[in-house]
Amino acid sequence: MNDSGGKIIYKQLLARHGRVRIPMIQRDYAQGRPAEKEVRDGFLGALAGALRRPKDDSSLPLNLDFIYGSVEGQQETCFCPLDGQQRLTTLFLLHWYLAWVDERWNDFRPMFRPHDRSNFSFSVRSSSKEFFDKLAAYEPEYRPSDIDQLVPLITNQPWFFRSWRLDPTVQATLVMLDEIHSRFASSNGLFERLTSESHPAITFQLLDLDNFGLSDDLYIKMNARGKPLTPFETFKARYEQELGKQFSGELRPIGNQEFSIADFVARRMDTAWSDLFWAHRDKKTNLYDSAIMNVFRAVALVTRNPGSELYLEDVSLLRASWDPPSYSTFYSQGWLDRDFTNTLISMLERWSAADGFSKPLLPDPKYFDEKKIFGKLIQNPAGLTLPEVVQFSGYALFIREHEKSLDSNAFQEWMRVVHNLVVNSNIERPDELRSGVRGLRDLLSKSTYILQYLSKLTAGDRLTGFNEQQAKEETLKAGLILSHRSWRPLIDRAEGHGYFRGQIEFLLDFSGVMAASVAKGSVDWDEHLHLSLQGRFEEYLRKAEMMFVPQGLNDCGGYRWQRALLSIGDYLLPSGTQNISLLVNSSTDPASWKRLLRGTGPKASEARKLLHQLWDRLNEDKPVTEQLDGVISEATVQDAWREALVQTPEAIGYCGNQAIRWNAPDEVYLLKKSQMNGAHAELFTFRLYHKTLLPLYRQGELAPLILRDYHSVNGTDLEPRVLVAFAQEGYHSSIKVEFRKGSFVLSVDRQPLHDRPDVEALLVDSLGFVQDEGRMLRTVAPTAIRSTMLALAKAVAT
């Protein structure tokens, strides 16, 4: 084959080579296995997405990577895939199914069954071959939309032998067909999209083994027990050949002997490196292929050049969970470059020497737990979060840069700065990943003296790729650590707090350190000022430790921290476009305690000042609960809505996600979740129920009135309310209490009272109700609601 990887579609492959036959040495069809559901769902989802996009969509075609193999025959050729059989099998099944859906059998037959056999078949066992021959010829008489499950239809056909159910490939094929049926039964016109040569939706690249300069026997090589090479063994063999070309003439020592880079990698793979991965082998097969291939994948990810135009594409391919890249992808994407190999060698050499991380490279794992990250890498590198990818980049690049003279203390300092910058920057998208990695690469040359470098940055200097505020914080802390020995333990203690995670600018602000550094233009202070500021810093740190535990806010019971802050001022932050929040612990939420501590974003700066005021009223040596109760009880709150929340901890407890809908000072709703179409309560009636009516009712002062449970509502058609029932001989009625425009509105349905004019007269003449169509209403000021409800109870009792 002369084509070196041009994109083609399945139809063009068959036109070129006539048939596709999965050779004997290949494994059974695996994508349909029950255990492969995640892979199956991901792959089918990708195919469906591509087929359903407009033909001029810029993201098309979906390229399924390289498929390579050998070509047999002279006059009538046959393509035998050695990598790609899973994809080709699934695509064949999709062609068959979509031909059925779109009634395109006249197009399907010339492609896949021009004669009395299928142009797609398996050689693994005869039952597989026979099944595909029959399936390719089968044209169901029913429409797909009339069939709930496809498998029973196929297995009940006269041509289907029961013994085929024992064939793993047939089993997997049936599972895949049912999945395809569930996704595509209602589709229309997708066969045309699948077979279009002018506007292809799904393509792959076809490579002949000759293009790699390798002999066919490499791919059919058997071990002593007659088993084919594992995917990793195949990868390793090809990779070593590539190393021979790329590092020609370069040597690396093992002991006192020098080896070419290819021989060095081959020997270490079989000795020291294999020992590293042996502990993580599959206990059933004793293979560690998956673990080491996952590390290859992670190293490829962190060695991609963020300045490359292909960077985002590379990241997408390397982080795809449904289709781990094969050697052909590594080769064709250019991932097996010098950076990859040098980083891989440096890391595996260091990890091997670490003896399963019993001798870790980092003295302390608090900023980067290398053993934990290694565990994640070998299991699923695509599962690393983007911030973890950036941190791992910093880790890997440092090892590569300083492999021969790795100073563990300098390494620890570097990873501390990397940790602080990364976890406190917004890295949630691939373009932000690119910026973070680029920023670390810019810093890498200063990695062994990172504190000295940071301490000399001026106000006009910037660290690209990271949160600017955090970068300035790191600069200030570097100067403090270098200027006075007593700063280090304080900063380490504060940064090590599980919730602050390196972000402690609020402590530097509250203690006056930031103001002093601005006023003097540096941190080159005398001993007295250093000690004075350290004392204030530690004071605020102890208060911070009182308020926050590693998971977030320290629960002192009764929502005391929130109520104490509200008694001083409005600290609530926006949550979404319509809500405000009492704040949550999740550091990624815009309305979090972490955001308040950072002091950036709408209202956050003012909210942080309120926290400063609260802490100034606390003594870290006294019980915090008593002090917060004192702040709450002594407060004079001007805003009625804040006062209601301060005095009603039950209202804060009602808000499941700490969200409130604040439309106006007298229109405030408590949300169970985050929207008004879910359960919600109204603040002032909720307070009335819990702080006024419920205590009166329990004391018997509302008798004979019966206080019902507070009535929350879903949606905006009805208002949340308090319900009070009353009954005497001959009638039974209820009173709704709602809050509208700053007043309580009492409403009584007149229908139950139509035979009791005396009760209506009582409500009107004695209690001030007015008739309004079918109801009787009374508007009551908040200051008079308690006395009004007591008067109502007394009146209906007589």
Distance between the termini: 104 Å
> How many β-strand runs?
22
Give the strand order, joined by hyphens, for the main sheet.
1-6-3-4-2-5
Q: Which bin fits the share of residues in helices?
A: 40-55%
Describe the 3D structure.
This protein has 798 residues and is α+β, with helices and mostly antiparallel strands. A six-stranded mixed beta sheet has the order 1-6-3-4-2-5. A six-stranded antiparallel beta sheet has the order 11-12-13-14-15-17. The N and C termini lie far apart (104 Å). Mean pLDDT is 90; it is low at 210-227.
In short, what is this structure?
The protein is an alpha+beta fold.
Task: Spell out the blueprint of helices and strands.
Layout (H helix, E strand, L loop, with lengths): L3 E5 L1 H8 L1 E4 L14 H16 L9 E11 L5 E6 L1 H17 L3 H8 L7 E3 L3 H12 L12 H6 L12 H17 L5 H6 L6 E7 L8 H4 L10 H16 L4 E4 L2 E4 H10 L1 H7 L10 H14 L8 H8 L8 H6 L5 H16 L16 H10 L6 H16 L6 H16 L6 H14 L6 H6 L12 H16 L3 H9 L9 H6 L2 H8 L6 H21 E2 L2 E2 L6 H9 L4 E3 L3 E3 L11 H6 L5 H13 L7 H11 L5 H8 L1 H6 L4 E6 L2 E5 L7 E4 H16 L7 E2 L5 E2 L7 E7 L2 E10 L2 E7 L7 H10 L3 E3 L2 E6 L4 H13 L1
Parallel strand pairs: 2-4, 2-5, 3-6
Antiparallel strand pairs: 1-6, 3-4, 7-8, 9-10, 11-12, 12-13, 13-14, 14-15, 15-17, 16-18, 18-19, 19-20, 20-22, 21-22
Helix pairs in contact: 2-7, 3-7, 10-11, 11-12, 12-16, 13-17, 13-18, 16-18, 18-19, 18-20, 27-30, 27-31, 31-33
